[in-house]
Amino acid sequence: MPKEIVIGTRDSQLAMWQARWVLNQLERRYPGQPFVLRGMKTKGDHVLDVALAKIGDKGLFTKELEIALDRGEIDLAVHSMKDLPTRLPEGLAIGAFCRREYPGDVLISRRGLTLEQLPSGARVGTSSLRRTAQLLHFRPDLHMFAIRGNLTTRLKKLEELNLDALVLAYAGVHRLGMDHRITQRIPLSTCLPAVGQGSIGIEIRAGDEYIQRMLAPLDDPASRAAITAERAMMKKLEGGCQVPIGALGRVENGRLFLEGVVASLDGRQLIRERICASPHRAEEAGAMLAERLLVLGAGEILKTARQEFGIHE
After folding, report:
1. C-alpha distances out from residue 218 to 5, 28, 29, Å
2. How far is CA 130 from CA 90, 108, 222, in A?
3. Is the Cβ–Cβ distance between 40 and 65 less than 8 Å?
4. 105 near 124, Cβ under 8 Å?
5. How much is the pTM?
């Protein structure tokens, strides 16, 4: 009997859905291999009454899983790709970039109104500085409220806090079967997604060739190229949950198109730029786009955002 392979994951509803999806994919391909899921809580799961930006820590939803992976307690860790820091701990690597779901954000409003139709001064809930900055750039009159928690919790807060709308990632809403609650897919021209949003990432021990070969069928080359470029841009800008950065890469007709945005927390300043390159030069393209954004003034915007949250460079 082959050795049991342990799949680590956060134990939130969405994270467990994603881990079970990975489990099902592997079980289909390797019917004689036993797999088991192991759920655990991360720092980001424990601290729910503070905005992510104010916690000021990288790896909020990954660190505990990475420690277990490094110790050999689990064999692979399933993450939302957007939660994975751009700098992984030494000895760990991304074993698979799973095929990306639609990467954008959606609006869930109480009265079925779109972003454009919301009344002046509408109260909108989101956990993301990236969304807040871009939406305030589009609609400076909105009142943004920081809310956290799983999808069910946020939908409850929509009612309890008398909010007009929520902004969430489409992928999470879709995966949990809540498409009927979506009022609008927010145009990507209005709000670029988080780096890696929509993709499931599988982290492994670097050099674990057995697990790497096992995961090869789950790796999607187009998603890998697009997200590698996004992550390279983010890394060059030294971004994370604490700063309002959005990006979207896509591979079309053999070319990689990458767009990035950096905005001030109040939405008054916004810099958006794009680049086109070969998918084989994804990392280089991301770094180049970051340089262009810095030349246009992104550095000062990010410096101000970090200072506002007491983050020292």
Report:
1. 16, 12, 10
2. 28, 17, 24
3. yes
4. no
5. 0.91
Give yes or no for a contact between 57 and 311, defined as CB atoms under 8 angstroms apart.
no
Domains by residue range for the chain, with CATH: 1-98+199-219 (3.40.190.10), 105-185 (3.40.190.10), 221-313 (3.30.160.40)
User: Which residues have a catalytic role annotated?
Assistant: 83
3-state secondary structure of 172: helix
Query: Could you read off the pLDDT of 228-281 as tens digits, one per residue?
Result: 999 999 999 986 656 899 999 999 999 999 999 999 999 999 999 999 999 999
DSSP assignment, residue 58? T
| Helix runs in the chain, H state only | 13-29, 43-46, 52-55, 63-71, 129-138, 151-160, 170-175, 209-215, 221-237, 282-295, 298-308
CA atoms within 13 A on the CB side of 194: 29
Which parts of the chain register pLDDT below 70? Answer: 1, 42-60, 239-242, 309-313
The SS3 assignment for 155 reads helix
